[in-house]
Specification:
The chain is an all-alpha fold. It is about 70% helix and about 0% strand.
């Protein structure tokens, strides 16, 4: 009964918002009839802002969609215990990490504050964002000092170490991605017991998928040594535990890695011919897993995270479709750009 009473409002909010997750097939008219009136779709999808104040360009479109997602996460976090609220907020701190990547690249290149600001996401009411302070920092060293003094202290220290050894952009961005997902795991582990029990299986699946794609990319794409690649992976209690990840890091071909996977993961990836295909299959799997949590569980924190994951996917798809329309791309090309998602229903 405690879960029901504690999460009754969250359950109601998630259920209301979930109605915005329109079936993928409803995007077909936007692709096939770009000049028709599609206000009905956008209203049903909770994206009325896209026609009330149409974005001037692709960057503004991306900002509008991100702002809607951040606003929904902030609303979902209201009334929750502090640990649960911070986890909900952290989901959309991915945009804060995107801002940090942009800021570091620009500081290295010597861009001015106004030029950088135009490229950053406005995170609106998201509590604890320190983007403006970082933006005003005199140089990269000052940025790192501010990070080390704030909520991202561990990430700041790791970035200082990485930048002290190399200014390779992919290593900097890998460190930022690692910081985001390792904090996600830490926040899950800090939840009250009942919350942790509901959230951990879902997040463990996500981390397993992220880790495997990273490992394949680091070893097969960038040619990293096994210890270096393993060091950049997030530790969690999923199917790909420390021992399994360490063993996979020793392999140097895609086929060898696929053959060494646990049966449940190997079945999903059977016949995959590239790292990109692995990533695409995992994206579809993650949507199915999130849809299952959203539609077949009640009164728990995992439903809110599942909704946010599905909502972000919906917005990425809408962004791809609208960008394709703006560029007057052929319908078939737009469909390929969104990965065929408009032709499939979530399980």
């Amino acid at each position: 009964m405690r879960a029901v009473s504690e999460y009754s409002f969250l359950h109601a909010r998630v259920s209301t918002l979930a109605a915005q997750l329109q079936p993928p097939a409803t995007l077909e008219p936007l692709i096939d009839e770009p000049d028709a009136d599609h206000t009905g779709y956008f209203a049903a999808a909770g994206l009325a802002a896209l026609f009330e104040q149409p974005p001037a360009d692709a960057r503004e479109l991306e900002q509008t969609l991100a702002g809607i997602l951040v606003g929904e996460a902030v609303r979902l976090g209201r009334g929750l215990n502090p640990a649960a609220r911070e986890l909900i907020h952290h989901f959309v701190r991915r945009f804060e990490m995107v801002n940090l990547k942009i800021l570091i690249r620009c500081k290295i290149a010597g861009c001015g504050a106004d030029e950088i600001r135009e490229r950053l996401f406005d995170l609106g009411d998201l509590p604890g964002s320190d983007g403006e302070a970082l933006l005003q920092a005199e140089d990269l060293n000052e940025c790192l000092r501010l990070l080390e003094a704030g909520r991202h202290a561990m990430l700041g220290r790791q970035l200082r170490q990485v930048l002290g050894e190399s200014h390779e952009v992919f290593l900097v961005e890998a460190a930022i991605d690692y910081g985001y997902f390792s904090t996600l795991v830490r926040l899950v582990n800090a939840l009250p017991f009942n919350d942790r029990q509901s959230v951990h299986p879902f997040i463990a699946h996500v981390i397993d998928q992220i880790n495997l794609v990273w490992l394949m990319r680091y070893r097969l794409g960038y040619g990293m040594t096994p210890p270096h690649a393993y060091f950049l992976l997030v530790r969690t209690g999923g199917q790909l535990d420390r021992a399994r990840l360490a063993a996979l890091a020793q392999l140097d071909t895609l086929d060898a890695m696929l053959e060494a996977l646990p049966p449940a993961i190997a079945g999903v990836l059977q016949g995959a011919a590239s790292v990109s295909e692995v990533e695409d299959r995992f994206n579809l799997l993650r949507e199915r897993q999130a849809a299952n949590v959203l539609h077949h569980s009640t009164f728990n924190l995992a439903r809110a995270l599942a909704y946010l994951l599905l909502r972000e996917h919906q917005m990425r798809t809408v962004h791809a479709v609208l960008k394709g329309r703006t560029l007057r791309l052929p319908a078939d090309l737009i469909r390929r750009a969104v990965g065929g998602a408009t032709g499939q229903e979530a399980a």
